[in-house]
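Q: Predict the assembly, please.
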Amino acid sequence: MTPLAENLFFQLLVGGSLLGSLLCAIAWGVAGLRKRLQEQRFLVDRINSILPQTQCGRCGHPGCRPYARAIATGEAINRCPPGGDRAIRRLSLLLNEARVPLDPAHGEIESAKVAVIREAECIGCTKCIVACPVDAIIGAAKHMHTVIASECTGCDLCIEPCPVDCIDLVERAPAFRYWSLAALATDPLSGEPCHD
Amino acid sequence: MIRQAFSDLFERLGSTSRRGIRPATLRESSLRSRIMPTPIPRELILSLQHYPDTSAKDVSSMKPCVEVGEWVAKYQLIAREKGPNATRLHAPTSGTVQAIEEIPPAVNGQRARLAIRLLTDTDERELPLEPPSDYRSLAPEQMIQLIEDAGICGMGGAGFPTATKVRDALEKGVKTLIINGVECEPYISCDEALIRERADLTVQGAELLQAACLADDCVIVIDNAMPAARQALKEKLQGSAIKLQVVRRRYPAGDERQLVKAVCRREVPNDGHPTDIGVLVQNIGTAVAVYEAIVHAKPCISRIVTLTGSALLTPKNFDAPIGTPVQHLLNLCGVNENQHEFTIRGGSMMGQYLMDQAAPIEKTTNCIIASNNAEIPEREAEQACIRCGYCEQACPAQLQPQRLLASIRNEEWQDTVELGLDDCIECGACAVVCPSRIPLVSYFRAGKEIHNEDHSAQRQSRHWQERFQFHQYRIKKNQEKARSAKVAAQSAGEEQGFSRDQARMEISAAVERVRRRREALARETGHGEEKS
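A: Predicted assembly structure:
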């Protein structure tokens, strides 16, 4: 009688089960990894949808999506000046983080802006057209350029490349607001805040 | 069978809404006199902005089709619709167009808007009207065309173009036409006065509207606080297929959704219109205007306006031309200046303070209240919410105002959406019953505004994202194109047996050849001049 270890059938059984469990483990690991990657991508998408998509790069990243990716891996949520309080509020709700004020190192909250080319001074160099991330500037070489105001994100990326400094950022007309929560919570007679 | 009976009973109990509030009726003073025709004022101001006038978006307007200095006849078309939800405007009397200019906003939250200033003359020379020879034989589409030509919009307050509404109903197919005569605001009596004095026109207008939208049946709904109107309608409705329904007077029973629920025992879906469940709702005033438009081809140039409030000596209803300055009507009633502190346009519940007494009567202006703080007190300081729940009992839209208030204060906009902020009809019943005097409805309006802003910011960022992605795609494509062009040029050269080295050799060979030829030439001419 051969010892059990020398039994071919037994060897096959043990080897097969070892191999099978290894394969299973790998498959499980890969699946888990894929799922995590997918979740990560989903999270990045959601963060990206909250960011204002001006592509201005003031957060230190080359665009909104790279910053979204960075936030998903743990970067601070308060580095987007164009998004302002609204973006921070929504990000903090999404990521279950504390609401923090905007990081002043990356800029201050400003009202919405739009780029305007002083058309008489434009020499038609096309440098701003190349710089615009949303193709909001039209024009041709050695011809005057102009900004499509409705498409301009006010990201100021066209200001720097202009060789004759003929682009200004002007404030957009603020959104019409009739009601203000702050005014509602004040006493109409004394002007002091009502207690809650 | 018993189960059926029970379910019917419950449905009936549930549908006759006990929600809302019962403010005191203050219509008597303005109903003491008959509807008074208005002496034509010296100047009419015809606003070219269409309604709704307080929201910043969706403002459609009218385009003037007369010029400054032009003389216009009564009934002449002076402005056409521009944009989808606008109507036409006709001259209410003859006169000269003095100016087309911006007028100051009438109520807080409105912007300056364009208006035609018409300097009236006393001639009242009118264009000949061309009424259809037999209005009873008109097809629905022809009737709707007549309504559109007359520039009629909803007289209840929202001011949606009637032709568009009826056409929509005709396309979708409606079962019931409801004529809304329920006036739930405490002061407004224009609908009641109209029914009381022009019941026959109301009934005929309702019949015409029914014929225009091909509804199976038609119900005129009034509330139980208008006995004279009820009597008048009853007499005129004898032998007619139109039914009369009387609902209990409650605020806001005259709201479209509340009315549909009370009459049809069905709820309008919160993201839809009554036409989605086969119901069309039209105001009493609209029905009368439709009668004038179809039978006499007369455009909508006047409306009934209630002038009331304790500061007026003789409150009454006016048949006022569109564009009459409010001050003109106030003068006709006689103002007690000591009592007059402010003027409200619209009812005391949903109206707004009028900032400019020279503001005109528009097609949607149903009431002007000249009053003071003793009668209609202004807002008091709010106290803390004590969770009494009165607001929930009052809310006709079955929302939970106190929870909405909390989520708006905490700026949790997702919660406000889930609690149904968009379904709030801003009737103000919650604010009236609140013992802590919290201006709930103002909070809800503010919340809606911020929420809308959020929405538009999101839409904007999505748009920019799309453009950025396209920009990236374009650059990538251009680069690929350039690269593939280069590769193609190279491979094309190789195919013809071209290579860089060979080309270089050929060039140097050619240079060599030229040099040699020159040398040979120099030798032939002889004397080595070339070298120097």
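The radius of gyration of chain B is 35 Å. Residues 440-495 of chain B form the longest helix (56 residues).
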